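dude i think i finally got it to work??
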Amino acid sequence: MHERGSKGGFSTRRLTLIVIVFVMLVVGLGQLVYFKPVDPNALDVDQLKKTVQRLEAQNLNLINENHELSAILSNNRDKLTNEDSIKDDEDINELKKLVDRLQEENNGLSQELKIRLDKSDPDNKHTDTDFVNELQEENKHLLEQLTDTQQLLEKEIQKQSLTDKIVLAQEGNDTVTTKYDTLMLLSHTYNKFGAIRNADKFTLAKDHIPIVIRVYNKHEYFGYALEHYKKALGIEQTILVISHDGLFPEMFKLVESIDFCQVKQIIHPYSGHILTNRFPGPDDSVPPMMDRFNHKRPWPHTALKHHFWWHMNYVWDKLFEEHNGNMMFFEEDHIPTFDFYETAKALARIRDKECPEKCFIAKLHQHQHSAPNVHGLFYGYDHGNVGLIMNRKNWEKLRNAGREFCTFDDYNWDWTLSHLTAKGMLPELSLTVEFPRAEHLGKCGTHAGSNNCDISPRDKAHFEDTNQKLIDEHGENWEHHGPIRTVGKPHGDHDGWGGWGHPWDHIHCMNQIKNFKQ
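look at this
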């Protein structure tokens, strides 16, 4: 017989149901609870009609999700003992009552809003502001309910010991599920259904370049970076995608503060900072296997390559599978200049015109020029890792080289790209700015050997001086640029820095291609 939670404790199965319902509620009511205060004199009927349509769509989504949940619970209940079925019936009824009540409240708001619209003034210029205030109060009440549910969920997750297990009927087989599976499920669901914030405030430009930022837990750097993203020219025309490697509240709070463009958050579901006792995180059950330097598997290092490869596959082949343009890639401690976005668009155009086949990427950072020209460009053989601008054609070349990427014994994804280039699997050149449009200020973390992530006044002052020079010399104006010459020579191949010798890492890495492409 399978083990269940400790006697008298909170049912882990019930916890799983609460996770499903919580995610469903967040998705269904996400836009509703973020309804912001409005100026009574600025309201119009068209805007409120759009609100009605959103509410109706949310109602339909809640109903469909409730039907799905009921079907899953019904199938699972048949596989449990009679005693378990009785307890599950209580859980099901309690959760269904919660969902039904919230559906009724949402339906009532939608219906009342329609009635008020019919009573609007004939000129369609103003509406009943008292009702809008009532609506905001209802939204506040619903948000409090969701917050209480989230706090309950977090408390119950903390209560579960590592040995607590439940039976979950999945695809006709009984499988053992722990709280870590629940967190992974929550991450997958969040990625699929999580709303795009600020979508009602900003419109994407036709030629926009999505900006993808991988983050861990360097909130000091990330906060400083967001200050400069907010000041960037043209930022309101695009979308930020924040890819989290772990669940760190400070990082999510910073993302929630973004009010200058659209933003979508995704969570790396296989992060070692989520699966803290399971592969690909730290896992004693992983068979010992040495890399080329006879080192054991260093999971904090392998996490870097796993996150990079997962998020590349996810954004290209899942999140933006219809996007045929460029994307831009940063990390949390890469600080952009005020003109980085306009420069990125210019570089993408120049690369496609001047170097369509030989250039793998365009990039916004370099180490090679000591006296750079603000509007100078060159072709280099180093792809780097800061401000990379890639198009779909070259992503497909990288994906096609996935087996070599996933089996090469180097936990550094950027050095792995250099290896692929040396083998002729990727184009060898990068179109690069002489004067950087992004700086890597990070001096803590895996490679730095320090846990102090405070930004020094000296580093801030240097970056602000760089940014001001670009402002003074109109760095965003790329109507003219000098001749583009080639700097350096091709890098020879290398054997890798190790840390990526375990076949389990290779298989998991290659599975990401199958997960999203197939």
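The radius of gyration is 26 Å.
im so relieved honestly
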